[in-house]
Design goal:
Among the domains are: 271-492, no CATH class; 536-578, no CATH class. It has helices at residues 2-33, 59-82, 89-107, 112-130, 136-162, 182-198, 207-210, 216-222, 229-237, 239-242, 246-266, 272-292, 296-323, 336-339, 341-355, 361-375, 380-406, 422-446, 457-460, 462-479, 482-489, 492-499, 504-535, 537-555, 559-578, and strands spanning 37-46, 49-57. It has 25 helices and two strands. The chain is globular. The longest helix has 32 residues, at 2-33. It has 579 residues and is mainly alpha-helical. A hairpin with a 2-residue loop joins strand 1 and strand 2.
């Protein structure tokens, strides 16, 4: 029974892990020989109609597939223990495998039709995974996630229809020499909008924290290398088309605001998984803004380094939530480092990698990104958004560490923490190792020509300044109640505005359904339950009821009424007779 229950788990882990290693060595071979393989497979040929499936293998798709397969293999191994009480474990693993397959289809597709298949597969399977626990909150979150992603699907469908102007749907052939074409500009705008929905940029941000209703292993997979990175990856692939587009300036502003908004909201949040989800949103904003400045290689670099430590962060959070009797509120946690030393080690290192502490994975990409921003010809507003958001990352990370590790344990008076799970720890250590080395390894692989960055001393030190400021603020806030500070500094409405992601969930859920549902409620009350009832069913019923009561009065066995009616009839007969 044990073998049957866990066989699919172990086989999936082993297969995906071996595939990721194979992809890694293939990628090394492709980079060394500067190779690209474009495969075209003719599925059906009927008269003059040909249906072909095309696949693109280059260093970028192979490297990304290696990361996706490695993280998903580790997550499946982690699920073996995390989901051990789950009755339908095989169903869960098959859903995760479908999710990974959809992502791989999207990665290797140079064809917009097969991209749609992978893109739609991600949306559909993510819905199934978000509603996995089957309660009202999960259903609401799943519907919000699915409908937000459907907007992107519609834009991809519109791109497919616009590409009927060309010879085929293999977009790779058209990006270079038709980038000035009017139709291609429209296609570019639609691709940007589709990527914004999938990567949860303003105004589509509210589904990302809501998707935390999914099981934690799914969150680790979704927020590191699959669903949310699909939009970024699509823009990296279409980058040649998007150069010098005006819409990219709008994307730069929106992604910068996303980065800032999620950083602020994370400081007001007390749900452990939502804090990490908002940090993902912040990093996605960083990737999209760098992309819109025309640096796809840097965005790809940060995407890969971020995937490692973010998956590790979610796995540590899952372990902590398990230990805390499924409690996610960080105010009840504290002193974790005494009870779960190895999990705390992983958590702290992944948090520090997120902050960009030197020589961890996040440092190599984040520092390079921010120095390139300092060298770029940007206005002051965007420059400040980048650096303030970096400080905010440090702010919510230190606040989280203080609440989890340093503050007192607040959950129960009885000691209820049990030993760390070795299956979970093994999977976490794989990602811990990658969080330590992936930054430098990718730096050597992707940028074999070093960037020359020359900056004044204060600009070079700007990252350290904002980081130290963030550390100080995070320490200060964790020692005080953030809401009591708001009472003095901010008004209630402004603090609510900052706390609730700039009212974005209200706009995308209540704003879209509340007023329409209110209108239909009024129609129901006044028409269906009002006038139509008065003049049809209920009205006729009331009239018949009153007549029935009237007749019933006469039909009661009442002697007075019978005597009176008898006399009345006799008088009528007499009148008729004598007339």
């Amino acid at each position: 029974m044990f073998y049957k229950k866990y066989s699919i788990c172990f086989l999936s882990f082993f297969f995906l892990f071996m595939m990721s290693m194979f992809m890694f060595f293939m990628m090394i071979y492709f980079v060394m020989n500067n190779m690209v393989i474009f495969l075209e497979w003719e599925v059906i040929s009927f008269n003059s109609i040909k249906i072909t499936m095309s696949i693109l293998f280059d260093w970028m798709s192979l490297l990304f597939m290696m990361f996706v397969l490695l993280i998903s293999s580790v997550v499946i191994y982690y699920s073996k223990s995390y989901m051990s009480s789950e009755l339908n474990l095989n169903r869960f693993i098959i859903l995760v495998l479908l999710f990974v397959f959809s992502m791989i289809l999207l990665i290797i597709s140079p064809n917009i039709i097969s991209i749609l298949l992978g893109w739609d597969g991600l949306g559909l399977v993510s819905y199934c995974l978000v509603i996995y626990y089957q309660n009202i909150k999960s259903y609401n979150a799943g519907m919000l996630t699915a409908l937000s992603n459907r907007i992107g699907d519609v834009f991809i469908l519109m791109v497919i229809s616009w590409m009927l102007n060309y010879g085929s749907w293999n977009y790779v052939f058209y990006l270079n020499f038709m980038s000035n074409d009017h139709e291609m500009k429209i296609i570019g705008v639609m691709i940007i909008l589709a990527a914004m929905t999938k990567s949860a940029q303003i105004p589509f941000s509210s589904w990302l924290p809501a998707a935390m209703a999914a099981p934690t292993p799914v969150s680790a997979l979704v927020h590191s290398s699959t669903l949310v990175t699909a939009g970024v990856y699509l823009l990296i692939r279409f980058n040649l088309l998007l150069e010098n587009m005006f819409f990219l300036k709008i994307l730069l502003l929106l992604s910068g605001l996303t980065m800032f908004m999620s950083g602020v909201s994370a400081n007001y949040e007390f749900d452990l998984k939502k804090i990490i989800a908002l940090s993902t949103l912040s990093q996605l904003g960083l990737m999209m803004s760098i992309l819109s400045m025309g640096m796809p290689d840097l965005a790809f670099f940060h995407l890969l380094t971020h995937a490692m430590f973010k998956a590790l962060l979610f796995m540590c959070a899952g372990m902590i939530i398990h230990m805390m009797n499924d409690m996610q509120d960080i105010r009840f946690m504290g002193g974790i480092s005494n009870f779960l030393p190895l999990t705390s080690l992983c958590m702290n290192i992944s948090n520090l990698a997120l902050c960009g502490i030197p020589f961890l994975a996040g440092f190599y990409s984040k520092d390079l990104l921010l120095e390139m921003v300092s060298m770029s010809n940007l206005n002051m507003f965007i420059y400040l958004l980048y650096y303030i958001s970096t400080g905010l990352t440090m702010f919510y990370t230190i606040r989280l560490i203080m609440y989890l590790m340093v503050n007192n344990y607040n959950l129960m008076s009885i000691y209820n923490l049990y030993e760390e799970d070795y299956i979970m720890l093994k999977s976490m250590f794989v990602l811990l190792f990658m969080s330590l080395i992936s930054g430098s390894m990718l730096m050597w692989l992707i940028f074999y020509d070093p960037y020359m960055i020359y900056l004044p001393f204060n600009m070079k030190m700007m990252v350290i300044y904002v980081s130290l400021m963030g550390v100080f603020m995070g320490y200060l806030i964790s020692k005080m109640d953030i809401y009591s500070i708001n009472k003095f500094i901010l008004t209630y409405n402004l603090s609510n505005f900052l706390c609730l992601m700039w009212f974005m969930p209200n706009l995308s859920t209540y704003g879209l359904n509340f007023y329409f549902l209110k209108l239909s409620q009024n129609l129901l009350k006044n028409l269906d339950m009002g006038w139509s009832e008065m003049y049809s069913g209920q009205g006729i019923f009331n009239i018949l009821k009153s007549y029935t009561i009237f007749y019933n009065f006469f039909q009661m066995n009442n002697f007075k009424i019978y005597l009176f009616s008898f006399i009345m009839w006799m008088m009528i007969f007499l009148l008729i007779y004598f007339m």
